[in-house]
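Translate sequence into C-alpha cells.
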Amino acid sequence: SAEYSEHSQLYGAVDPETAARRGKEQAHKRLMASMERQLQVATTKCKARAAAYDSLVEQVHATEAALEEQKERTERVVRELAKLKAAETPENTKELEALS
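Result follows.
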C-alpha cells in the first residue's frame, strides 16, 4: 500500500474521486437551498397576488350588483315616465308639467 501512502501524502487523506464527489454534493446542496429560497419567494408572491385578485373579484361583483340595481331603477323610472306620457292630454298638460 505504498501507493496509498504516497497518494495520501500528495492529496491528503481524501482521494480525488471522493473530494470531487463531496464537492458535487456540496454544490448540489447549495443549489437545492437556493431553489428552495426561490420557491418560497415565488410562493409568497403568488399568495399575495391571489389575495389581490380575490379582492378585485369581490369589487367587481359588488359593482355588478350596484349596476344591476341602477338598471332596474332606471327601467322603473322609464316605465313611469311612459305612463305619464300616455296619460297626457291637452286638458291635463299643465298639471303634469307641474309634477315633473
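Note: Residues 16-87 form the longest helix (72 residues).
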